[in-house]
């Protein structure tokens, strides 16, 4: 059994920050459970372009307001507490955070914690040594 708090991982290598977001990785690939789990805040007034070519991501909004744009279709969706979206087709997308937007994210395959978005918004596929 693993029990972990945000306070325990704040300031560690599991606490990853980029110009438009901060992600605290509660579960990573090294736990070997088949997914990773992140508490992520996208900063108010920012826009983040992403494309998970190598991962499936489910996102559940638990705080704040924002907008999700499917760059392939132009479709827009309001993000607010209680909204979930699943990127099951590796969609190119943009998240616009109108306020600080707090989300819970699940990735499959799990991330290792070392990933950063490249110029296309993609996380590379990094695997853990077994």
SSE blueprint and pairings:
Blueprint: H1 6-9, E1 15-17, E2 21-27, E3 36-42, E4 46-51, E5 56-63, E6 66-70, E7 76-79, E8 84-87, E9 92-97, E10 101-108
Antiparallel strand pairs: 1-2, 2-3, 3-10, 4-9, 5-8, 5-10, 6-7, 6-9
Question: Gist?
Answer:
The protein has about 130 residues and is mainly beta. It has one helix at about 5-10; strands spanning about 15, 20-25, 35-40, 45-50, 55-65, 65-70, 75-80, 85, 90-95, 100-110. A six-stranded antiparallel sheet has the order 1-2-3-10-5-8, with no helix packed on it. Strands 4-9-6-7 form a four-stranded antiparallel sheet, with no helix packed on it.
Number of helices: 1
Shape: globular
The Cα radius of gyration reads 14 Å
Number of strands: 10
Q: Indicate the mean pLDDT.
A: 91
Q: Classify the fold: give the CATH topology of the domain at 20-108.
A: Jelly Rolls
In spatial order, strands of the major sheet run 1-2-3-10-5-8
Main β-sheet, in a few words? 6 strands, antiparallel
- Share of residues in helices: under 10%
CATH superfamily of the domain at 20-108: Jelly Rolls
The top level CATH class name of the domain at 20-108:
Mainly Beta
Percent strand equals 35-45%
The structure class reads: mainly beta
Low-confidence segments: none
Compressed to H and E, one letter per element, the order equals HEEEEEEEEEE
How far apart lie the N and C ends? Answer: 20 Å
CATH architecture of the domain at 20-108: Sandwich
